[in-house]
Amino acid sequence: MEELRVDAYSPLEIAKKIAAVAEKKSGLDFFRMFVLAILAGVFIALGGEFYTLVVHDSGLAFGLNSLIGGLVFCLGLILVVIAGAELFTGNTLVVMGFIEGKVRARQLLKGWSIVYLGNFAGALVMVLFMYYTAQWGFHDAMVGGKALLIANAKVNMSFLEAFMRGILCNVLVCLAIWLAFSGRSTIDKILAVIFPITAFVASGFEHSVANMYFIPMGLALKGQPDVLAAAQSMVGQPIMLGNLTIAGFLVKNLLPVTLGNIIGGSLLVGGIYWSVYLRQFSFRSLFRIAQVGFQLIFLVHPRELTPTRIAANLSSFYGFLRRRPPRRRPLPRDLTTLIEEETEEED
Question: Mean pLDDT for the chain?
């Protein structure tokens, strides 16, 4: 009979569980993966809709308003984790299964592509639903005005700004997923999700799937005179919507944010935790991960966008991921027991 435990899973157990789940995820057929991805897009969009409704006229100080917005946005990831869905940003942790050799590169990229497109489809479905609910007309169209302001702000960031915010966003999202894996009950998982997700939203970081809802919603509303008037009254001046176009959405926001999300989740969370818990520990491995991370980050710099530099950086990164130490020693469940076990072996 399996031992009944109420304590959280240890980090080592979490790493092993994620690697095993990554293998199962890569084995899903197209229909299941795509439908679950659509659901995730819908769930995150529901969080975005809830966020817009709550913060549009809170009247609180900036910090408190951001905090409350972050708390209500948690609805999206709670639904993903508890109800079950395939979210692109969370699935960047599948890279742990790839490094372990349980997931092939082709499976990894195929899974990411299917889930990304499914998330996009789900978010757009919610845009359609929310537009025809006319909820944007609530409170003299101020709800729609806030949605328009959110979208416009997102397409007016620089490439580097959006990229860096994307990295930090998915660090927190993947840490939320990591913490949720430590829980043994629904309450455990919900509490694990709340603080990291609240932090990323309140901090203004960028989530690619959330933006698949926020920016198309702004695009759908920019032609509504009442919404435009409400948005201008909220900021007290005319607003420039020149970048709020499909091209502005895809190039100025979605592309850099997606790249940042991939690096933040796969490298800074998945890669580092794999290095610590599933690979023989060494400071050299941590240094190597940091080195590769800087190489990938600087790919966004124009000087680094030559084919030779890109090929060299990606080749170095792939070589590191596939390298195996000659001798692996699994870590104990609790790192603090390492000395005790070695002492027992000597006795």
Answer: 84
pLDDT tens digits for range 29-63:
999 999 999 999 999 999 999 999 999 887 788 88
Note whether residue 3 is domain-resident. no
Torsion of CA 284, 289, 295, 296, to 10 degrees: 170
Q: What span, in angstroms and rounded, lies between the C-alpha atoms of 86 and 114?
A: 10
State the virtual CA torsion across 158, 162, 167, 173 in degrees, nearest 10.
170
Give the long-range contacts of residues 321-329, CB within 8 A, separation 24 or more: 321/95, 321/98, 321/99, 321/271, 322/99, 325/279, 325/280, 327/280, 328/279, 328/280, 329/280
Separation of alpha carbons 94 and 111, rounded Å: 9
Instruction: State the pTM of this model.
Output: 0.81
Q: What pLDDT does residue 11 have?
A: 85
Same-domain check for residues 259 and 186: yes
Is the domain of 322 the same as that of 271?
A: no
Q: What's the Rg (C-alpha) of the chain?
A: 22
Same domain, 271 and 131: yes
Polymer length in residues for the chain: 347
